[in-house]
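For the sake of transparency, this paper describes our internal protein records without simplification. The remainder of this section carries one protein's record, kept here as part of the documentation:
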Amino acid sequence: MAKRKRINTVIWLGLIVSALVFYGICFITVIHPLEDQLHSTEQQVTMFETRYDALVSQTEDIDEDLSYVALQIPNRKSPDNVLSTFHTAASNANVVIESISSIGEVMEEESAQVRNTSYSIEVSGDKLINVNLFLGSLLESERLITIDSISVNQREDSVSLSLTVTTYFSER
C-alpha cells in the first residue's frame, strides 16, 4: 500500500509537472505573442484616437475660419461701402487718397458663388508709418480685402503708395 501511495504521488507529481511544462510552452508560444499583439493594437488605437482628435479640432478651426470669412463677404457688391472703408482707413492713418479707380468685376465662372472686384488706389502720406497704418487698416477691415500688388515710393518729404486690391461679394 505504501508503494501504491508512492506511485500515485509520483504520477500526480508527474502530471503536475507536465501540466506546468505544457502551460509554460503554451504561454511562450501562444499567450505571450497574443499579449504583445494586444499591446501593439492598443498603442495603434491610442495613436489613431490622437490623430482623430487632432483632425476633429482642425475641422472645428476650419469651420470657425470659414464662418469668419463668410461674415467678411457681403451679399451684394456695394462699392459705396468699399469706398467708405478706404476713406475711413485713410483718415485714421492720416494719409490722402490721391485716386481710386475700379478695375472691374472678374467673373471666373458663371456659377461661382463668390465674385470679386478689383480697385487701383494711390495714396500719399508724410511718413512711411502712416502708409503702413493705412495698409493695416485695410487688412483688418470688416470686409475681406486682398492686396494683389503694391508699390511704395519714399521721398525725403513724402511717401506714395500704389496698390491693387480685390474685394469680394456673393450673389446669393
